[in-house]
Structure formats: structure tokens, C-alpha cells
Amino acid sequence: DAKTTQPTSMDCAEGRAANLPCNHSTISGNEYVYWYRQIHSQGPQYIIHGLKNNETNEMASLIITEDRKSSTLILPHATLRDTAVYYCIVRVLFSGGYNKLIFGAGTRLAVHP
Amino acid sequence: GAVVSQHPSRVICKSGTSVKIECRSLDFQATTMFWYRQFPKQSLMLMATSNEGSKATYEQGVEKDKFLINHASLTLSTLTVTSAHPEDSSFYICSASGPSGGMIQETQYFGPGTRLLVL
User: Fold this and answer.
1) Long-range contacts for A61-64 (Cβ within 8 Å, ≥24 apart)?
2) Partner residue facing B108 (CB), from A42, A101, A104
3) pLDDT tens across B69-79, in order?
4) Of the ranges A52-66, B73-87, B94-108, which one carries the lowest mean pLDDT score?
């Protein structure tokens, strides 16, 4: 089962910041939080990931709470092309050193003019 | 960097035939590749994980004799759906991760997906 919970859907006006929340209260100390998005009928696109510290790249910012039980993905200036399903995923580690992503339902973000 | 391709992008086949889907990492060496399946209006479900040169590890409920996975090189993995039936119709997506190249270590990069329709 996915270790994260996200709102089913969100709306955002074009040009405004989109803040997508995610709860991961059972996250373990060495598990990363990953964000991907999926535009209709395409493969997921990597956005950003983090462990403890806040992260920023050319696509987005990731804010992780100090207790690591939740995080927020921020798209600073949403455009219509950002309309997609956004997945917050805890990368699960297994014995033997391998890991895998367990996808939940994600948040369907609609950016409108 | 970190580009993953899949071929074909879509395929239609008759029930009972086998279909092979290729997944390639174009600009990095993928030590691990993953295969997912996605039904309409649902999320991605991991089918199996494969390491180069090793047998794939299948998720619970995925038939290994029906979904044959080969990861013979660091840039190519194949998924063969054997004796396909209409219920196998789905969107199949691969991802790849590796320690080298211009991408983030151990991050999965996804292919564009292959839509399979079994008649």
C-alpha cells in the first residue's frame, strides 16, 4: 500500500503558485519523498525528491516538515501545461539494498486561465 | 539526460498471441529497470523489478510465466506478454534507474508507455 495520502483534486489559476500537500506520517528515517507527475497518456515525469531538507530545482520546490510526516510541492508559477496528476511517493527500501516506488492515487491538478 | 524510450508506443494483437515491448535507457546505464501497468482511471501498479543480468523479481499476484522480463544489457529490458487475452489490455510503462550518467542516482526515469489492446 502507498504510504502517502493526497487530496484527490485541486484547482489553480494560471500564473499563481500551486501548493500540493502530502501526508506521509509513517515514513522511516532513511526513506526519500519523491514527486512525479503524469500528463494524460504519458509516462510519469520526475519532478523533485528530498530526504530532510527543503529542495528546489528548475521545476519546483519541495518543503518537508521537520518531523518529516508531511511535505508540500510548490509550483511557483503554474501554467496550463502543469495540468496533470501529481504523485507523492515514499521510496520504500527493502533488505538487499533495492527499493521501489508505490504509487497512490495522486492529486489531479487543474490549472485554469 | 535520463531519457527512457519504449517501443512500440501502441500495439493491437489477437487473443492468444505474444507481444514484446522494449524499454531502453538512451543516455545512461540502467542497472535496474521496472515494469508497471496502468488501467484506465487507475494509478500505476508495479509488476516487476529487474536487475541487469539477473532474474526479475515479480510483485505478488503477477504471473511470471505470463509476463516474461529480460534485462540482458544495461540499456535494454523487454517485457513479453505471452498468450495475451483481452484482460491484459492496458498501458505498460517501464522505468530505469542507475548510478551513472547525468541523472540522479537511484531515481527512476520513466518511458512514455506502451498501450496494448488485445482483441
Assistant:
1) A62/A33, A62/A35, A64/A33
2) A101
3) 998 898 999 99
4) B94-108
Note the pLDDT of residue B58. Answer: 94
SS (H, E, C) chain B: CCCEEEECCEEEECCCCCEEEEEEECCCCCCEEEEEEECCCCCCEEEEEEECCCCCEECCCCCCCCEEEEEEECCEEEEEECCCCHHHCEEEEEEEECCCCCCCCCCCEECCCEEEEEC
Residue B17, C-alpha cell as written in the block: 498471441
pLDDT at A96: 63
The residue type at A81: R
Would you give the distance in Å from CA A107 to the centre of its chain? 9
pLDDT score of B98: 79
Residue type, A109: L
Coil/strand/helix, residue A87? strand
User: In this model, does residue A93 exceed pLDDT 90?
Assistant: no
Q: In this structure, what C-alpha cell is assigned to residue B9?
A: 508506443
Residues 48-107 of B with CB under 8 A from A: 49, 51, 57, 91, 93, 95, 104, 106-107
Contacts of A104 in chain B (CB under 8 A): 43
- CA B81-A88-B51 angle, to 5 degrees, is 40
pLDDT tens digits, B37-54: 999 999 999 999 998 888
